[in-house]
């Protein structure tokens, strides 16, 4: 998707939130914001919002020398999610539709997003997970269920720290299929990296790779050739989070987006209220020469 004019204030807020995490020096805050305002004059609105955010966060790291401004934030988010995981696992095991329950909890975990809420607290995280089944839900559930049944290889594009711990619930439902979990290649916002996947034990469940990119989404042209090859070959791609939706919404194939609609731009695009849990199949044209793999029960 293209960057909307309404995305610009959000990108500016992100840059200021991140700068304040790094330093209390108001002169750096001002300098970064002035640079961002100047840069916004020539912003390429045909690019996706994650591409714009990538540029801003790179500049922040250059100015401050801090590689991962959200390091401490991600640590507590992983801890809180892991603390809640056993109870959530029990709820999945006890319900009549464990695949859907795990998917909805994984989507609820997408609330752990510092891009949309720079003041996110532990209480916010706990409430989001505790009320997972109370939030409105809209999705292509039966198409998703059928795609999972038919798939032999699944590419799972992760999004945020904390959220990645809750992804374990859905990944457990997808096993024993061959699953590759994809994280960011470098720190950006509170997006999950290899370190986060290891902290929540996903490296012991599935293969974990990084995409080689520092964008808060999946910009295929900015990713490694290995990631692009796996993306093209996978029977099913599960893309978590709004950033992945923003950067991949026009891609074809067996691609499903699991995210919370967290802003007016996305809510209007999907035609659902802000806060809705979304499970959407890509509306891109079918990939040429691709057919889903047959799978027997």
From TrEMBL:
Pfam families: ARMT1-like_dom. This is ARMT1-like domain-containing protein. SUPFAM superfamilies: AF1104-like. It comes from Cyanobium gracile UHCC 0281. Residues 4-276 form the Damage-control phosphatase ARMT1-like metal-binding domain. It comes from the Bacteria.
